[in-house]
Specification:
alpha/beta; Rossmann fold; six-stranded parallel sheet; single chain; about 350 residues
């Protein structure tokens, strides 16, 4: 049985992509360990088919956190029995690279983001230069890898000559919860800067619906201020972090999903958010950005209304169109349910297993 260790900087509890990947490998005769971080606010880990380990850090953000976590991760991996190590994103790549070289182990790179093109990176020139140097040094040394979308895979090939596979964040195909539809707009995911949250609040004032927010993030304080300043306290429900298994219930109740992101960097422009597929699997028509990855899928399946800008009037117009146009709504809803049969993890995991089988064959 081959042993594989994955490394992330989150606290494991809400990482749906890693839960799927690790579960698939564990169910197919791999011994899997997922390593992340432990926060003071971390909830207890739930039992999985794979092993989990969280490293406690004294620092929780900024340069000191990344330095501390990478040092702790390096020494943990250095003495951990394994056949392969996989870095998740650029912020864990150096320990994986160094340990795999020292111990002569297989190494893989799973890029959830085009890390150096994230808004919070490109907006800080010194930080951007540091991460870019790490990327230029590290990524070409990872012959085996995969990422979340075709655009990011093409960018890595153009920049570094690596040919990474695409493993998209499809949910498991499973029965839909039966819930009564409510006149609600669902925002699911990180409440972070760059997600057009202020524009969404302004758009909400132009609709006759309630916004339900399932998530938390670095923009929550400003978001709460925005709700108060617009006098929308009675029309925005903040649910906080919801366990992944409970999210489909909220999607089943909602009438419209929203998936908005500002194109301030290639990472945002090339994004392919988990929520896009979660909405599809819930049979939930959505308002989404007209960016390459979304357009690629929507051209085939017609599951969303794509918008070209983030003006509140544009967002509100699309939401209102879905709420009031029964014919359009039912067509998109039916298309979502049909698309589920193709865009699901049971299909996508076959490619993942091929990647790991070929990695150990060479």
């Amino acid at each position: 049985m081959k042993q594989v260790v994955f490394s992330v900087t989150n606290d494991l509890s809400y990482d749906q992509r890693m839960h799927r990947i690790c579960t698939t490998l564990a169910e197919n005769n791999y011994d899997v360990l997922l390593v992340g971080r432990k926060r003071r606010s971390s909830i207890p880990l739930t039992l999985k088919k794979f092993k989990q380990k969280r490293l406690f850090c004294l620092f929780n953000k900024g340069v000191l956190f990344y330095v501390e976590f990478n040092v702790r991760l390096f020494f943990y991996l250095l003495f951990k029995k394994t056949d392969a190590v996989c870095a998740i994103d650029l912020d864990t790549i150096l320990p994986v690279l160094f340990v795999s070289k020292i111990r002569n182990k297989k190494r893989l790179y799973d890029a959830h983001e085009l890390f150096c093109e994230m808004k919070e990176i490109i907006s800080r020139p010194v930080i951007h230069r540091i991460w870019k140097r790490i990327e230029k040094y590290s990524v070409p040394q990872f012959a085996y890898g995969y990422t979340v979308g075709f655009c990011i895979a093409e960018e890595f090939h153009k920049l570094y000559g690596v040919k990474y596979q695409v493993i998209r964040n499809f949910p498991l195909l499973q029965d839909l919860p039966v819930e009564q539809k409510e006149r609600t707009i669902l925002y699911q995911g990180a409440v972070n800067e760059g997600r057009a949250l202020d524009q969404l609040l302004d758009a909400l004032k132009l609709t006759d619906a309630v916004l339900v927010v399932c998530g938390d993030g670095n923009y929550m304080r400003q978001f709460k201020d925005g709700i108060k300043n617009r006098n929308l306290q009675n029309r925005v429900l903040l649910k906080g972090m919801i366990p992944p298994l409970e999210l489909p219930v909220y999607a089943a109740k909602a009438m419209v999903g929203v998936n908005l992101v500002e194109a301030k960097g290639l990472n945002q422009y090339y994004s392919l958010a988990n929520k896009f597929f979660d909405y599809i699997h819930a049979g939930l028509p959505q308002v989404c950005m007209n960016y390459p990855e979304y357009k690629r899928i929507n051209d085939t399946y017609q599951v969303a209304l794509l918008i070209n800008d983030l003006k509140p009037e544009t967002i509100a117009r699309a939401i209102n169109n879905l709420i009031t146009n029964d014919v359009l709504y039912k067509q998109l809803q039916e298309n979502c349910l049909k698309a589920r049969a193709f865009l699901n993890w049971q299909q996508e995991e076959k490619k993942l297993l091929d990647i790991y089988a070929s990695t150990f064959e060479k």
